[in-house]
Amino acid sequence: MMNQKTPWERMEIIRRKERPTINDYIPLLFDEYFEMHGDRLFGDDCAITGGIASFKGRPVTVIAQVKGRNINENKACNFAMPHPEGYRKALRLARQAEKFHRPVLCFIDTPGAFCGVAAEERGQGEAIARNLFEFVGIKTPIISVVLGEGGSGGALALGVCDELAMLENALYSVISPRGCASILWKDASREKEAAEMLKITAEDLVGFGVVEAVIPEANGDAATGPEETAEQISQYLYKTIEKLSKIDIDLLLDSRYNKFRKIGVYSEG
Amino acid sequence: MLEDLFKIVKTRSAQEPKVPGSKVNIPSNLLFKCPRCGKVMFAEDFEAAKKVCVGCSYHARLTASERLEITADKNSFEEYDADLQSVNPLGFAQYDAKLEELRKSTGLNDAVVTGECTIRGSRCAIGVMDSRFMMASMGSVVGEKIARLFERAAEKKLPVVIFTASGGARMQEGIISLMQMAKTSAAVARHSAKGLLYITVLTDPTTGGVTASFASLGDIIIAEPKVVVGFAGRRVIEGTIRQHLPDDFQSAEFLLEHGFADMVVGRDKMRRTLSHLIRLHTKEGA
């Protein structure tokens, strides 16, 4: 069934506090989850959770952005806006997965990387860049799923993968519609218009060759059935891990490189 | 401190140097006012100093051709992919008109010029970003030209030098512009895996998606004095924390202090520095 909702309607759905987060999905998707903390350089960033899990009997590494449901949870996870140490923890865990030949499952759900003094001092730009540079060469399958908000570079830092999927109402954008409206028209209130212009829905991204799969949500809204939505995610992951695990690793890395290499629209000559 | 709340703090206009003569009716090409220290110079003196402020040594923005002029050996530059042009993949309002106007006013097709040259005899692949073209934002053309630069350099076993400057990803190309960050970083990784050298020179201003991709990935990262380099925009951060940031926040010197640049090098020493570093990475060595 085609999702008929406008980008703005989807935005309202994914920002609702009832929207299931990774904390809801982890127990539904995995039999066991051992969370691992810290980047071994500076500290632990609670905006990104990561660890080792058992997925249908297979060990996997999970890396996910954490949203809260209320103000206290959101304070603890900084509204899912990671600092550099979060991205560096993600890279450390991806390297660990490579060593032990586990697939990496990334779950994206962030308004963006945190914009603040400490984030700049610790090299937010470098941390994101390093992940883009390293993830393209990690010698194990990587699958990323956008659960809700895919906010710009802060999302992309967990989005260099072999296959990218989006939940049907998820959005993935280079800039928030609000930010776009305020740059374009100096009027942030025109964000609905900007949301249309930016082409940020799952269907749009399939059209651009950025996204490989759209995962249906229960009754068109994950909040109405987290279990059913988790089951859809689970089926997608199972099928995709099976497929990617059979591919020779050098071929897989070439096709990962080409997945990004071929994105771009321009004229020549 | 409470009293700070009532203090009027002069906002630094670092992000957008004012066009001289915009308010007073002085011919715009006569004077240069430094956006960092406010010093006013005759344009002639400023040009003679390679656009470096004599007051504070702020290294002002250069066009791509000015940069190549002072960097590459005479007549050594051969351009790659000059024909690549942006299209409007999202049908974004006013984007086509903006591109057309900038092509006319700058003589460029987009925000980066790439090619090959020698610097004091050392051959390298080179990329220079030009902030006049939509604040050198990265869309498909910038991403493609940078990726091809690294791929060609990998084939020819050449080092790469990039003078970065950018406002970030090009919003008008939506998600496609975001993906250029992954594409360029992947191309850097492939070049790097061949054991080849990549030197980044951060120039004013390098921000957003370019900082969060190829600009931060050099084996050696050089910054020009006093330039602005960061991920998030200064005003965005000021809006979040509701206070003004110190003037040197996100400067070249700030980067050096926090461990994200190897050195700060002035324009007068840039050619020597680059050519020496390149030579130290060849078989013949020093």
Write the layout of secondary structure elements.
The complex is a heterodimer of chains A (269) and B (286).
Chain A (H helix, E strand, L loop, with lengths): L6 H9 L6 H8 L2 E4 L12 E8 L2 E8 L5 H6 L7 H16 L4 E7 L6 H5 L2 H12 L6 E10 H5 L6 E5 L3 E3 L3 H8 L6 H7 L4 H6 L5 E3 L10 H20 L3 H13 L4 E2 L2
Chain B lengths: L30 E3 L6 E3 H6 L15 H8 L6 E3 L4 E2 L8 H12 L5 E8 L2 E8 L10 H17 L3 E7 L7 H20 L4 E9 L1 H4 L8 E4 L10 H8 L10 H7 L4 E2 L2 H14 L6
Parallel strand pairs in B: 6-7, 7-8, 8-9, 9-10
Antiparallel strand pairs in B: 1-2, 3-5, 5-6
Helix pairs in contact in B: 4-5
The parts of chain B where pLDDT drops under 50 for at least 5 residues are: 3-17
| Assembly state of the chains shown | heterodimer
Quick one: CATH superfamily of chain A?
A: 2-enoyl-CoA Hydratase, Chain A, domain 1
Give the termini distance of chain B in whole angstroms.
54 Å
Overall form of chain A: globular
In percent terms, what proportion of residues of chain A is strand? 15-25%
Q: Which CATH architecture of chain B is right?
A: Alpha-Beta Complex
Structural class of chain B: alpha/beta
E-strand count of chain B: 10
Tell me the name of the CATH class of chain A. Answer: Alpha Beta
The arrangement of helices and strands of chain A along the chain is: HHEEEHHEHHEHEEHHHEHHE
The average pLDDT of chain B is 91
Radius of gyration of chain B: 19 Å
Order of helices and strands of chain B: EEHHEEHEEHEHEHEHHEH
Helix content of chain A: 40-55%
Distance between the termini of chain A: 42 Å
Q: Using the coordinates shown, work out and report the CATH topology of chain A.
A: 2-enoyl-CoA Hydratase, Chain A, domain 1
Biggest interface pair, counts: A-B, 51 and 59 residues
Number of helices of chain B: 9
What is the gyration radius of chain A calculated from CA atoms?
A: 18 Å
Task: Count helical runs of chain A.
Answer: 12
